[in-house]
Amino acid sequence: MGKIAIVTDSVSDIPDDIVKLYDIYVVPLTVDIDGISYKDGVDIKKDEFYDLINSGKMPNTSQVSPIEFMDVFSDLLKSYDEIICILMSSKLSGTYQSALLAKDNLKNQNITVIDSKNFSLGEGFIVIEAGKMACNGNTSDEIIARVTNMIPKISYTMIFDSLDYLYKGGRLKKTQAILGSILNIKPILVNNDGELEIKDKVRGRKNAIKWIINYMRETKVDFTKKEIGLLHTDREEFMLEIENAIRNEFGATNFIRNRAGCTVGVHAGPSAVGIFFEFN
Q: Keyword tRNA processing: yes or no (predicted)?
């Protein structure tokens, strides 16, 4: 049985300890600030990045290039027999297309590139499952089948104070972004087949938490048996309030928590919180 490398992009927001535990290879996107380019999580760390955007800087991101993927794939194929590369939604970035071009240029049939149709920890959950399976000795066919089945079952919900960053980054239309500019209105976005969709809008934190609890209750998922992903950009205290409410309501104990990386922070801004889990 051949060794399988699991590859993803830095948008997946997988905690560093889990990346190391399952030998996941993370390819960084590029963040551009004031004419200087940084590799997400390599050349610039989260604290420094959020200090910059809180001071009013408006960064941009660049997708991973085909040449970068070719270099990563070629290097990994020296030590691994196969590569499974799981990337952020192709509807939100050209990174997936770059990886396909790299695979085509290398003319190697042992590289599989998968569109997660997700973003941030929604993508991360899928990658983590693939990493676990690779470490447990599953075949590439088994991993690909599980991942393919998992993709449409990931619930991705994010709460924002403002949608300005998503609008400026080209991920939302101006008419949608206006919803986030009304005082204390918190837009709630969900994943709709790889695109971000405004699901609702609520006033204040307490109502946002109530919305999340009601949404989770309606799914009929047994959260005592599920991992729940929690993410924040620069609002850890709000994330922990949500975690506490979920614990109290559902008896959930298994959480993966992280602060969003720079790429997600560029588009989400410093005031977003996300909740992720897999449906039954």
A: no
On whether the CB atoms of residues 159 and 188 are closer than 8 A, the answer is yes
**CA 197, 199, 204 angle in degrees (round to 5)?**
125
Helix 95-106 to helix 66-76 angle, to the nearest 10 degrees? 50
> Is the torsion defined by CA of 5, 10, 14, 15 positive or negative?
positive
The reported pTM is: 0.93
The ranges assigned to domains in the chain are 4-151, 153-278
Q: How many CB atoms lie within 10 A of CB 205?
A: 18
Q: What is the CATH number of domain 153-278?
A: 3.30.1180.10
Q: Does domain 4-151 have CATH number 3.30.1490.190?
A: no
Contact 189, 272 (CB under 8 A): no
State pLDDT tens for residues 218-271: 999 999 999 999 999 999 999 999 999 999 999 999 999 999 999 999 888 888
